[in-house]
Structure formats: structure tokens, C-alpha cells
Amino acid sequence: MSVEADTETFRVAAVTHRYRRHTALDAVSLDLPNGQLVGFIGPDGVGKSTLLGLITGAKKLQSGSIEVLGGSIDDASHRRRVCPAIAFMPQGLGRNLYSELSVRENLEFFSRLFGQDEQERDIRISALLMATGLAPFEDRLMGKLSGGMKQKLGLCCALIHDPKLLVLDEPTTGVDPLSRRQFWALIDAIRQDNPCLSILVSTAYMEEAQSFDWIVAMDAGRVIFQGRPDTLRGKNDDLETAYRQLRATEQPRPIPDHSVVRKHYAEPVIVACGLTRRFGDFTAVDSVDFSINRGEIFGFLGSNGCGKSTTMKMLTGLLPASAGEALLFGNPVDARDCEMRREIGYMSQAFSLYGELTVYQNLELHARVFTIADRAARIEQLTERFGLKAHDKTLAAALPLGIKQRLSLAVAVIHRPRVLILDEPTSGVDPEARDAFWDLLIELSREEDVTIFVSTHFMAEAERCDRVSFMHAGRVLAEGTPGELIAAEDTDSLEEAFISILKAAESPAPVVAPKVDLHATTRKAAAGLSRVLAYARRESVEVLRDPVRLAFAFLGSALLMLVFCFGITLDIDELDFAVLDLSQGPESRAYSAEIAGSRYFRPTAHLTDAAEGRDRLIGGDVSLVVELPPDFGRKLRAGEATEVLATVDGAIPFKGETVEGYVAGLHQTFLDALARDDGAQQSEIARIEPRFRYNQNFESIAAMAPAMPAILLIMLPAVLTAVSVARERELGSVINFYVTPTTRLEFLIGKQIPYLVIAYANFVLLAWMTIVVFGVPLKGNPIPLAIGALLYVWATTSYGLLIATMTSSQVAATFATAIASVVPTIQFSGLLQPVSTLEGGAQMIGSLWPSSYFLHLNVGAFTKGLGWEALAPDLLALACFGPVLTAIAVLSLRAQEK
Amino acid sequence: MQRLSCIFWLGLKEMMSLRRDWVMMALLVWSFTLAPIMEATGVASSVNNASIAFADEDNSPLSRALATAFFPPEFQPVVQIVPGSGAVQMDAGRFLFVVAVPPGFEKDVRAGRAPEIQVMIDATAMEQAGIGANYIINILGDEIRRFAIGADLVDPPPVDVILRSAFNLNRDTVRFAGIVALIGQIMWLTTILTGAAMIREREHGTIEHLLAMPISPFDIAVAKIWANAAVVLVAAGLSLTFVMQGSLGISIAGSKALFLLGTALFLFTATALGVFLATLARSMAQFALLVMLIVLPMLMLSGGETPIEGQPDWLQVGTLILPSRHYMSASQAIIFKGAGIETVWPEFAWMALLGIALLTMSLGLFRRSVARDG
After folding, report:
1. Is the pLDDT of residue B18 over 80?
2. Which residues, at least 6 apart from A526, have a Cβ–Cβ distance to it below 8 Å?
3. What is the pLDDT of residue A745?
4. Smallest CA–CA distance from B112 into chain A, residue
5. What does the pLDDT read at residue A679?
6. Do the Cβ atoms of A465 and A430 come closer than 8 Å?
7. What's the gap in Å between the CA of B182 and the closest CA on chain A?
8. What residues have CB less than 8 Å from A95, skipping those under 6 apart?
9. What number is the average pLDDT over the span A55-78?
10. Which residues partner with A689 through β-bridges?
11. Cα distance from A665 to chain B (closest Cα, Å)?
């Protein structure tokens, strides 16, 4: 160890961190040694993750100061300098990894973020894969790895750039004991090769902390102990007891009286025979057998993803079995049998009650569903017994985890079931709450003969069960009482027994430290560009593997283009009309023939009176009623003035006005014809000649088809881009941006590039549809159009980025972007109302909105046949939006978590 | 009986959940207050404030009289431009209409030589161009005729046509746009609320929890449907009274109760659509994308945005299967024209039929998807 390493320490001083009203860290001060393995222990929610996030710079410091690697982590320039030396593996298996990417692609992405060249990358990746035994799985998608493998991959990704500080947040939670043991062996091997490496790790398993160099014990946002593990343990048997003593609430652990069950009942309640479940070609549960007797507590032990939950779901009838049989009280489990469900109480893995209801409302809802007769009394009794009285009116979401679990159990037993199926009921709960929970289970089992089937990955809990079954990779490896299992494997503890059984089932990969044969790591000058490309490449792979987003990108725009172009046509003809001819002469017939003969109107049956005309207008059968007065013919012949009454259906204003225009035109034609027949003085005083420019036949498609891309090319690209950024935030992989040298601009542009390409491909598709499907020729110059479209999609994808920086969830991003892009485009860009007709504020917004220019450009190039000079102003305007919007997005993106 | 009470209580739970979901509540309030007001007052669909220019080469009393015949709100004040520059100015998008009066126009009129005025129209501005051209031709024609009659050149025409705009004497566009906006919001919101409620249940894992109880997938879906439909129905009724009638001053010709009955029928379809899309989508984000792709076309083709008669014939037949079209047409008949049940019952029958069909299908799919996901 060098001298420098000794002097460089981690210093945390008076750090307080709040999330709204909740205080996660309360004036924490620490001095941590360098080059050591430091463990943070304590149950969920005591502030471990917050502290680690602050130390790595992933979270923004609120108050106090933290010194890491010789400088304040709150100082942005220091953070940038040291972040290539820090590696962070956040909580949750593979939370910072990309499930749509393969093992190798994940590693390559991280390698690129640190600017390694191809040669270096290959050497490092193969060394890491070899060392962790992941080499045979390098092409498997990360999402399909087992828990233990995800954890190894996470470690590989963290180690790819030779960090000096490795921060691991609960790296082993939910992983089977053997994988856990191997993980620590790997860490040990790495430390031997790099004695300077400092490791900060948090864990909820107290027994792991035994081998750490230094321990920081936390409770409720405060540090309650720091020092060597031996000091903490003192005279106690293990660290857990010592930790409890620190919290000064030591209680004896309840151990069930095993003998009671055996004597009285031998009646099997739950039986599984060759139970199997396959998802596609993956077998989640492989012919599992067991039999559970009445009143027994049966423990199901295994790592995450080994098939425990699937087995339990088959027993409750939630999931049909692919093969084999599950029996409850001797009858096969049937998903449709509602009566059988009254016998079962089920508690699923995650908290699955309604967080938005209060404790009482949750209980009441379930009591109603089960139609419990003595509802009020039962709820009263349960709240009393489960210690929920004080929380009666609290929203379930606001309860601490331990109390949530008690509420879940209360709900599960509200209908007095004879069987309880509990799927990892205590994960994440602190030790005292876990004990209280087990007290209740034991009481139910011993006093009410409830049969309990419970899964867990805590060995300490398994020891309390009457019988235990070890499950691994879909198979049951061993079954028996804890004593029998320990005896059979000839070990000291249940954990050792499990490990020994696992080892026999599959020989573990050898543990070695990765040997990287590199003389000097040269950083390329253009590291920024390579990070942009790393993000762009990863995003492209992900979007290409997501059929929904891909379909939305291409089919979506084609579909909407078709709908809009066919739906928003404003050419109206062949409207039905009716005549009330009270004159019944040749003149009146000539008048109606004039209308009927036009292409705009289609005659229907003649009317007999005015009331009928009104009825038919109301019913929507006709759009126009023409009433010719009784003396129409006579007056016309006599040269007296007469009039025709035309009633138009004005309910739809646009349609009504169009019809009025038609009628006025036809009336004039009638008058002209009349004058010609009379041979009287010339009828025409002057001719008014309309010239429809750009679109001689005045077909709406020629205007509509080139206008639609303006709205489609803002809505779809902006939504897709916004979702991609919000998605990173929601899934947690955004942490890679916080803790790697990636700048805000690099991150955003990297995410933007794939969508820019997709949007441009969309533009080409829409232009093709305009020409081929809708038959609107491109009359103008294609080159300014092509350039303008690129500038436009640059602007619209940047707009998506901007909105994404202001929203936190994918749903919010989708709706906010959709509304914020469609509304201004429709109202202010000239889509429905030309920009020249907008007034004041609306015109201002229109001139500050990119769609206005692209609309003019696209319609101009297609229908108006414009060239360079006429389109150049649009290009200039469009060129401003992309850079400005990107700049605002960069400024409003947070480089650290709050 | 027991099942009904289950469905009732689950539905009440749905409402309590909704009340605490502030994002959805905000969306609900926005959709039924500000959104329709903005839509109704924002865009005038007929000719409004149109830009018009005159290239007057005559500069006679008659041509000057023509230029002063255009008034707001339909037209902006006429701008005199240099003759011959009309095309370039129109290319730049400065004017929608350019009227060119030839030299010696008044002289030719007096001499009975029937001179020609050209009206250049930007035909890419579809809504304004067609109706605006009619306006201009009528205004110019009237003005010239008045001049001709005054100068004793012609007789008044023997037949006059009186145009009456039934159901909407003042050609008011706010009423139309407001009601169409309200109907659009009903569609969006019902689909989003119901679908989001389904997906929320799945994402929070509570659906498993429900299915482990003596409740069938059918009960769950029905509870969500009635609860969300009831919320939207109440919100729509309030919006109709306080926003449409109150704030926008829209008059309702027919019976409000009949309109709400039609809305209730339509809600079956819209909620069923929400359930259907929720079974297709794997996540909330996918659902949001799907909603946009499905609901937007349903709205566009319903006859609210543009008249059904404008669609090609094959599409007019196709859109008959859209419940939104029947809802739109029945609502317009009731609200604008005061139609009664004897007029709109075929539309109601269509909606009921389509609603039942879609509901049956989506419930079937939902049951399957529950079995698949476990």
C-alpha cells in the first residue's frame, strides 16, 4: 500500500439528506480508511443507498460535505476528474444494465463510455468474462440471465475501467448462498491483485459483514457504530445479535414447537405431483413434488428466479400447470373454482394491496369481497391482533415496510383460510419486524391449525420452519426438517447444507481475478464523440429490439397519414337535398333540375310540406331544402320579382357554408340561363374569374398530403425521443450517465441520433406515400426539401429531449409531449388556419414554432412547386430550432439525482 | 347477488383510487374544462381574418369601391400591392387571396364589354380557400351589380335566393367546436382512464392478488368499466352544464338527458376499448402509444373534425363500424337540431350493438391475457 493511499481517505461531514418530508440521512459524519473493504449494514430504508449515492456523486449533495479521492465530490470539476476512477453498482440486480442487450453488448457499452479502443476492449472483456465464468453466455440477453449471473455482469461492467473506488449497493440481495459466496471470493481475488482498491459495500445480510475490514452500522439515517467487525460483535455469537443490541430492542427469537404438529395431524393439505411449468422453451419449474400436512409451516428456500413464485402461483390457481398436478385438500387446483379460493390466503412477493386506500379501507374491501358476515367485528379483531389499530386511517402506501407486511397478512387471513401461501413475505423487512411477523405465523399454525407454505431467501427464517425444501433452477434439490438436512450434509448450519447441496448439483465456475494484459491505457482524444456514439449505438440496438416502439415509429406514421389524408378531406359533393315545389310549373322544375344536375347535389323524394323538410333536416337525411313559392312560375313569366327559400343544415358550420356557396353559384347559373333564353340585354356586367393557384382542380389531397408530415414528424419523433429518456430514468439505468464521464450534451445527443435517423426515414416514407399513394407530384426542388426535413426532425427530436428533461415517468413524457407538440402545431402552424390569418399572440407563437416553417416548406416544395429562393427563408429559420432546443434541454437536464 | 355486490365494491374502490391519483385527476379536470374551451375558441373553422390584396391597375371609383367592400372579422383590411407581384407574395405565404383589377375596368363595365376580374386563391389553404373564394366572388359581384343598377346598366335580377342557415342562424363556430371537443375528450379520457386502471393493477401486482380471491377476471373488468364510465358520465354532464352552457354560452336544442343516455351507451364502447388496449400493451408507456394510434383515427374519422361526406365512398362505409361516428352524429342531432329519440334511435342501436360486441371481445381477451401472464 502506498503512502498516498493511506493519507487519502473518504471524509463525510455533517451530511443531511431529505426526500420531501422524509429525512434519509441525519447529520452523518464518517472518516473511512482507504484501500479497505468497508461495509454499510442495516435493514432497508436506513439510508445506506442514499449515502453511497452521495459518495459516488450520483446524487446531489444537499448539505454537509463529502471528500472522495482528494477533493469535494460536490465540486463539478473534481467530479469529472475522478469519476473515471469510481465504479458504482446500484441496488437491484442489473438495474444499471440493459436487459435488451447481450452480456457482451453491455460490457462493450461501458467500455466505450470510458473511451477504450477496440483492442483494449477485447482484452478487458475476455479477461472479465473468463474470470467470472460468464464467457459461455456472452451472447445471452441480460434480461434472461439468472440473478447470480446478473450480479456478476454488473460487477464486470463496474470493473471494466480499472476503478480505484468500487461502490456496491446491496450486491448480493436475492442471490443464492453459493453465488453469494462465489461473489465474495471474486472480490477477494480482485483485492489481492489491486491492494489500492477501496470498496464500499452495503448489505442487509449481517453474516456477510463478518469478513469486512471496517463496518458502518446504520439505523434511521444515523450511524450507530463504526469500527472493526470484532469490535461490533463483542461477546455476542453473531453480528445480527450485536446489531440488535445496538438498537436496544433485543427480543428472544421464537422457535416453533415442532413436536405438536407431528403428533396430531398427518393429513396432507397441499400436494404437488410432478408439477411443471414452461414459458416457451424455458422450464421455470421442473417436476416438483412435495406434500404439506395440516398445521405445518413449510419453507421454500431458493434464490430469485429459481421458480418459487411460479410454483406458488400454480398452487393458488393463478397459473395453470404445464404438466403434473397440484392438489389442495385432495382436490385438483382449478382456476375457476371460486369456492376453493375461499380456503386460501395468498400474499404475493411485492406489496400488492392498494396503497391509495387506508388500512381500514383495504381490510373492508377484502371483507366485502369475501362476504364476511361479522365484518366489523372481524376487522376490529384483526387490527387489534396485528397491531394495526394505530394506523387505521393511514394510507397503506405511507406505512413502513414492516407494517405493510402485517397488513398484507391481515388481509390474507381475513376470511379465516385454512391454507396460507406466502411468497417472500419478509424481504426487505428489518429483523425486529421479521420476528414479529413470524410470531404471528407460528400462532396461526399452532393455534388455528393453518397450513403455511412460505418462501424465503433468509436462512434464519428457514430454520424456523417445520420442514424445508431447497429449490434451484426449477428443481427441488432436497427436502426435510432443518435438522435432517444439516445432518444429511454433515454441516454446521442450514446455509452450509444448502451450499453443499448446490455444489453437488452444479459445479461452480472457478474463481480467479481477471488478468488484464495492458501496458498502458491510452485515452483517445475524441473520447466525447465515442461516448456519444456509444449511447447512439446502444439506443439503436434497443429500439430495433422493441417491436412496439418500432411499429409505432413506422406503422404509426403511415397509418395516421392514411387516416388524416382520407379523413380530413374537405371536398364535399353528392349531398342529398329535397325540394318543396309549391309551384309545380316548368320554371320551378327547371330550377330544381339546375340543382340536381350539378355534381354537388343528389335529389331525394319531393316534400309535401315545410314540416317534413324540417324533419328531414333534423334527421340528417338531407343537407339542403329548397322551397319554391306557389306563384314562382307565374311571377317569373310576368317579370315580377320572386324569391326562392334555401334552408341549409348549418349544424356543421363548415359544411353549411360550403353548401351555401354551392347554392349561390347554382342560382347565378340559373339566372344566366334565364337571361340567355329571354335574349334580353346582356346578363353579365363583369366576369369574376377565380384562379386556384398551385392546385388547379382544388383537390384537398394536394394540400393535405404535404401538410400532414408537418404534424406527424413532430408528434412521433418527439414522443419517441422523450420516452427513451424518461425510460432510462424510470428503469434506473440513467445512473450510468450520472457516474460515468458522460456529459449532458453527449448523453442527450447520443440518445437523439437513432430517433433522428428514424424520423428522417419516416420523412422519406411519408414523401413516398404523398407521391405514390396520394398521387401528389413533387413539383418543386427536392434538395431544399431534403435539407429542410433534416433540420426539422433535428428540431422535433430536440423538442422531445427538452420535454423529457421536465417529466419523470414514461407515461407523463408520452402524454405531455403529445399534447405539447400537437396542440401548437394544429393551432398555430397554419395547418388549419394559414399563418397570415393569425392575429397577435397566436402569430407570435406560430413564428416561433418550427412546424410553421416546415409546413410552408413541404407544401411549397410539393404543391406550390417552389425552388431555392422561395424556400431559403424557411431553411434558415428551421436551422435555428435544433441547436436552441438542444441547448435548453442540456441546461435543464440534471447531471445528478436529487 | 354476491357477485354483484363484489363488482359494486370493487368499483367503489376504483373511484377511491382515482381520487388519490392526482395525475389522472388533473387530466380529468383539464380535459373537461380548459381543453374544450381552448379548442372551441381557438380555431375558427370558417373564413376568419383572411389576408387579401388588391393589384389595382384601374384605380377608378368602382375599383376603389371594390377594395373597401371587405370587412372584418372575415377579412383583414385590403392591402394594395404592385400589379404583377401577387404570385411572389403568395409564394411567401403573405396573402391567401389576390384580386387583380385590369386597366380600364370601370370604362369597360359602363360600355357593357363584360371585363374580367381575376381572383387568385392559395388553394393549399383548404378550409379558407373554398369558402373564402365564394365570399369574394359574392362580395365583388354584389358590389359591381349595385354599381351597374345605380348606373342604370341592368335590371335587378328576377329571382332572389334567400339562404337560411338552419339550426345555426349566426353561423356560430364556437358551439360546434365546443361540442365536438367535449365529445373528443369523452373518448380520450374514458379509454385512458379505464386502460390505465387495468395496467396500474397489473404493474402493482394487485391483479394477482385479486385473482387469488373468489373474483373472476370478468368481475374485475366489469367493476372497472362501470366505475370509470360513471366518473366520465358525471364529468361530461357537469362540463356540459357549467363549461358548455355556462362558460361558452352554448345553447342546447334538444334534451340533455337524451344526450347523456347516448353518452352512457357510447361509454360501453370506449371503456371496452380501454380494456382491450390494456390487454395488448405490456406497460403503461406502450399503452400510451397505442391509445394515440387508435383513438386519434377514431376521432378524426368520426365526422366531427370534417364532414363524413368528405370521405371517399369506401371509407364512408368502413367508418360505419366506428361507434364514435354514431355517437358524434347522434350528439350533433340532439344538441344542435333538437332531435328526439324517434330520430336518433338507429344511432343508439348501432352504439349498443358495437359496444356489446367490443366488450365481449375484450373481456375474452382479458381473460386469456390473465391466464398467459399468470
Report:
1. yes
2. none
3. 92
4. A685
5. 63
6. no
7. 15
8. A731, A732, A733, A735
9. 88
10. B118
11. 8
**Any idea which residue has 375596368 for its cell?**
B105
Locate the chain A residue with the closest alpha carbon to B211. Answer: A318
Q: Does A321 touch chain B (CB under 8 A)?
A: no
Query: Scanning every residue of chain A, which has its alpha carbon at the shortest distance from the alpha carbon of B140?
Result: A688
Give the residue extent of every domain in chain B: 2-43+171-373, 52-150
**Chain B interface, best mutation among A369, A571, A857, by max B CB count within 10 A:** A369
Is residue A573 within 8 angstroms of chain B, CB to CB? yes
Which set of grid coordinates corresponds to residue A271? 400436494
What is the rounded average pLDDT of the residues A435-464? 85
Residues in chain A: 898
Per CATH, is B52-150 categorized as 3.40.1710.10?
yes
Burial category of A9 from C-beta neighbours within 10 Å (exposed 0-12, middle 13-18, buried 19 and up):
middle
Percent of chain A scored above 90 by pLDDT? 21
More confident residue, A405 or A778: A778
Residue of A nearest to B287 (CA): A811
Question: In degrees, to the nearest 5, what angle opens at C-alpha B350 toward C-alphas B349 and B352?
Answer: 65
- Which pLDDT score, from 0 to 100, does residue A610 have? 87
Strand locations in A147-296, DSSP E? 165-169, 198-203, 214-219, 222-227, 268-279, 282-293
Looking at beta carbons, which residues of chain A come within 8 Å of B137? 688, 690
User: B171 phi and psi, to 5 degrees?
Assistant: 50, 45
pLDDT for the residue A522: 52
> Would you list the DSSP string of B74-91?
TBPPPEE--TT-HHHHHH
b/e code B244-280 from CB counts within 10 Å (16+ = b): beeebebebbbeeebbbbbbbbbbbbbbbbbbbbbbe
Residue A769: per-residue pLDDT = 94
The string of pLDDT tens digits covering residues B90-139 is: 888 889 899 999 999 999 988 888 899 999 998 888 778 888 888 898 88
Strands B52-56 and A642-649: unpaired
Inter-chain CB proximity A836 and B95 less than 8 Å: yes
Q: Are A707 and A714 in contact (CB under 8 A)?
A: no
pTM for this prediction: 0.83
Give the pLDDT of residue B101: 93
* Cβ-based neighbours of A517, under 8 Å, separated by 6 or more: A123, A127
Residues of A with CB below 8 A from B42's CB?
A: 827
